[in-house]
Design a protein that fits this description.
Length: 397
C-alpha cells in the first residue's frame, strides 16, 4: 500500500487534533512541541514519552498538561524528578508503556520520534490502532517496511523527514505510475569533498558539526557517513513504491531543495524552503491543510546560488552498503541497520574510528544470511544477532 492517495485521511482529523509525541525530548520531539505551542487552537498534546530524559518530560508535562506520560527506561522508576509531574498525569514505565500511548482512545495522531529500530513497535501499535502516524523514525520503515506498509490506509501515515515530506508534497495531485525517478537531496554532511585518508582521522566533534541542520547525535553521525541518506533511500522505496535504483541521491549543500520528483514527461517538481524541521512536522500534523508557518521564509533574491553534485560512494561506503541491503530486501536492511546503530554509538563513545563504522556494517552484513521477512518477532531476533556480531567487531577493534 502506498502512503499517498488523493483522498481524505482515514483517521478523522478532529480539531483540536489530539497528539501523542513519542520521543518528546529529542530534536524532532522538541520541535514538534514548538509547533503545538504555536497552534494551541488546532493541536492538543494528550500523551508524551521519553527514553530517560525525565527533566524534559516533567517540563513538557507542566506546559502541555498531557493525561498520560511514559518513560521507556525502567531504571528511571525511582528518579526523584518524576515526583514533580502534575498530579493528574498518569505515569507508566517500559517500552510496552510507550507503545500503549499510541493506542489510547483519546489519541488521534502519534508523532513517532523514537530513535532507532525501537520505533518499529510504537509505529506498529499506532497503525493497527487506526491512528494517524506522523513519523520521523525512518529505521522502522527500513527494518519493517514489508510488515508495516500493508497496514497503512490512505492518508494514515505522513512522513516527517524533510526529504520524504518534500516527496509527499510533490506527489499531491499526481499518480505514482507517472513517476520516473526520485531525487533525494543531501547536504553532504561535514566531510563533503574529503578523501578516505582524511576521514581516517576525523573526531566525533568533527562529525557532529552538521553544516545546515540541528539534529540528534545519532542522526548527525549517520549524516556524516551518508548512512542517513542510505536509510532514506530504503524509506522512500517503501513509502512511494519506487525501485531502489530509481531513487537518486543529489548533494545539495545549501539545503534549500528538500527533494524532487521527476515524471515520465521529463517534468520535475521540487519542494523548497528553509532548513527548518518544523515545516515538515507541521505539514504532517495539518495535512491535507496548510497552516500559517512558524519558520522564517527564505529571501530568494539574496540567497546563495543553488548547486548540486553526485555523491562519492567509494569514499562514503555506507551509502553503497545501504543500497546493497535495499536491493537484497527481506531481512538484509534489518541486519544493516542494527550493525550501523552499534557502530554509530561505538564511534560516538570513542571506541572505534570513523571508517570503522563502514567496516563493521559490511562485516555483519556478510555474516548473516538474508531471509524473507515474516514477523516482528523474527526481525527482533535478527536485530539482536546483528547487534551481538557488531559488538564483537567493536571489541576486536
Amino acid at each position: 500500500m502506498s502512503i499517498f492517495e488523493n483522498t481524505a485521511p482515514h483517521a478523522s482529523r478532529r480539531r483540536p487534533l489530539r497528539v501523542a509525541i513519542l520521543g518528546c525530548s529529542g530534536s524532532v520531539g522538541q520541535q514538534t512541541l514548538d509547533v503545538c505551542r504555536h497552534h494551541t487552537d488546532r493541536l492538543q498534546v494528550v500523551a508524551l514519552a521519553v527514553h530517560s530524559s525525565c527533566a524534559a518530560l516533567v517540563a513538557a508535562a507542566h506546559e502541555f498538561h498531557p493525561t498520560c506520560v511514559a518513560v521507556a527506561d525502567e531504571s528511571c522508576r525511582h528518579d526523584a524528578l518524576l515526583a514533580n509531574l502534575p498530579a493528574n498525569c498518569k505515569l507508566t514505565f517500559g517500552s510496552e508503556a510507550v507503545c500503549a500511548l499510541a493506542e489510547l482512545e483519546d489519541v488521534d495522531c502519534v508523532v513517532n520520534a523514537v530513535v532507532g529500530e525501537a520505533g518499529i513497535y510504537a509505529g506498529y501499535a499506532a497503525l493497527t490502532a487506526g491512528k494517524i502516524l506522523a513519523y520521523a523514525n525512518k529505521e522502522s520503515i527500513v527494518v519493517g517496511g514489508d510488515l508495516l506498509m500493508p497496514l497503512v490506509r490512505p492518508g494514515q501515515l505522513i512522513p516527517v523527514d524533510s526529504e520524504h515530506s518534500a516527496i509527499f508534497q510533490c506527489l499531491v495531485g499526481e499518480k505514482l505510475s507517472d513517476v520516473s525517478k526520485i531525487w533525494l537531496t543531501c547536504s553532504g554532511g561535514p566531510f563533503f569533498g574529503k578523501c578516505r585518508e582524511e576521514l581516517a582521522h576525523v573526531t566525533v566533534a568533527d562529525a557532529l558539526a552538521h553544516p545546515t541542520w540541528s539534529m540528534g547525535a545519532k542522526i548527525s553521525i549517520d549524516s556524516a557517513t551518508l548512512m542517513n541518506k542510505g536509510l532514506e533511500i530504503l524509506e522512500a522505496h517503501h513509502l512511494f513504491e519506487t525501485p531502489i535504483d530509481d531513487i537518486h541521491v543529489l548533494i545539495h549543500r545549501q539545503s534549500r531543495i528538500h527533494s524532487m520528483v521527476e515524471f515520465v514527461d521529463g517534468s520535475v517538481k521540487g519542494q523548497l524552503g528553509p532548513s527548518d524541521m518544523r515545516i515538515p512536522i507541521q505539514y504532517a500534523l495539518s495535512y491535507p491543510e496548510r497552516w500559517q508557518g512558524v519558520a522564517q521564509p527564505v529571501l530568494w533574491g539574496t540567497t546563495n546560488p543553488l548547486t548540486c553534485a553526485e555523491p562519492d560512494e567509494e569514499t562514503f561506503g555506507c551509502l553503497a552498503l545501504a543500497k546493497q541491503a535495499g536491493r537484497a530486501g527481506g531481512t538484509a536492511p534489518c541486519v544493516m541497520n542494527a550493525a550501523n546503530e552499534i557502530a554509530n554509538e561505538a564511534f560516538r563513545l570513542g571506541k572505534i574510528g570513523f571508517l570503522d563504522i563502514e567496516r563493521i556494517v559490511s562485516s555483519v552484513i556478510e555474516k548473516i544470511p538474508r531471509e524473507s521477512t515474516e514477523s516482528i518477532a523474527q526481525l527482533s531476533e535478527i536485530d539482536a544477532h546483528a547487534r551481538a556480531l557488531a559488538q564483537t567487531c567493536v571489541l576486536k577493534g
